[in-house]
Amino acid sequence: MYHPEGPAFLELMRQALVSTERGYDLIAPKFDHTPFRTPEPVLDAMISEISGPRSIGSALDVCCGTGAAMRHLRALCKERVIGLDFSQGMLDEARLRLANAPGDAAMELVRGDALALPFDAEVDVVTCVGAFGHIVAEDEDRFVAGIARALRPGGRFVFATGEMPRRTSPGWWAARTFNGVMRVRNALLKPEFVMYYCASRRRRSSKPAHRDHPARRMAIGAKRRFLSGSVSVGTSVGGE
Ligand SMILES: C[S@@+](CC[C@H](N)C(=O)[O-])C[C@H]1O[C@@H](n2cnc3c(N)ncnc32)[C@H](O)[C@@H]1O
């Protein structure tokens, strides 16, 4: 699971003891050698949900990290690809890694909070991958509302996320145990490190909070099975 060039166990522990933002700053140079960097097959599946080369104007990747999705998005865009993340360390790595990304759309890296997106009807596609664990259930509506605001009319929110494990599976129990440890850590230590697995209210509730919100009409576009497990690629249409 761990790469020789990736962070050592102690480095990951140190990451979890500081804030989410600072934690990512610390592991940024080694992040691409961790299992937390979204694997290429998952990115390929998400990108194939969008469309072909130069088929859209602009895209925004929320919680872009080191730019894994942005590298793929550039070829699809005619205008610009924006990556937003709150870790300056991750953005610095993204800048280095995206220098030779194929395509000619302008690339912009913005330091900001996924819960306060500073965009208004500016992009045709918003993507987010590998980061839903950082959005706690209480913030989900704010998160989705910001994405809907960023989209142009008819725009889409395209994302990849893991399948919820069955309650009887070891994966479900591992997630619960991890979340329990994080809750204790966050109760004892400030600032918090926000990362919880399989904790989305969306999956537990049959009633979306903003039922009338366009970005709420999420339809699972495709399900694909990868070595690391099952991944859903979802699309929601927003901004109409
Ligand atoms: C696990 S990494 C995923 C990075 C990338 N999307 C990928 O798939 O490889 C999660 C990223 O989300 C960012 N992040 C977490 N919470 C955030 C927030 N509230 N606003 C902006 N970025 C956030 C972290 O800094 C980190 O770069």
Write up this protein.
- α1 (9-17) runs antiparallel to α2 and α3 (40-48) runs parallel beside α4 (68-76).
- This protein has helices at residues 9-17, 20-27, 40-48, 68-76, 88-97, 140-150, 170-188, 201-204, and strands at 56-62, 77-85, 106-111, 123-129, 151-162, 218-226, 229-237.
- It has one domain: Vaccinia Virus protein VP39 (Rossmann fold, 3-Layer(aba) Sandwich), CATH 3.40.50.150.
- The protein has 240 residues and is α/β, with parallel strands linked by helices.
- The protein is globular.
- It is 33% helix and 25% strand.
- Strands 3-2-1-4-5-7-6 form a seven-stranded mixed sheet.
- S-adenosylmethionine binds next to α2.
The tally of beta strands, per DSSP, is 7
Report Rg.
Answer: 17 Å
N-C termini distance: 42 Å
CATH topology: Rossmann fold
The appropriate CATH architecture is 3-Layer(aba) Sandwich
Distinct small-molecule ligands in the complex: S-adenosylmethionine
What count of structural domains?
Answer: 1
Amount of helix: 25-40%
CATH superfamily: Vaccinia Virus protein VP39
Q: Give the biggest sheet.
A: 7 strands, mixed
Keywords:
240 residues; alpha/beta; Rossmann fold; seven-stranded mixed beta sheet; 7 strands; 33% helix; 25% strand; binds S-adenosylmethionine
List the helices and strands and how they pair.
Layout lengths: L8 H9 L2 H8 L12 H9 L7 E7 L5 H9 E9 L2 H10 L8 E6 L11 E7 L10 H11 E12 L7 H19 L12 H4 L13 E9 L2 E9 L3
Parallel strand pairs: 1-2, 1-4, 2-3, 4-5
Antiparallel strand pairs: 5-7, 6-7
Summary of the model, kept short:
With 240 residues, the protein is an alpha/beta fold. It is 33% helix and 25% strand.
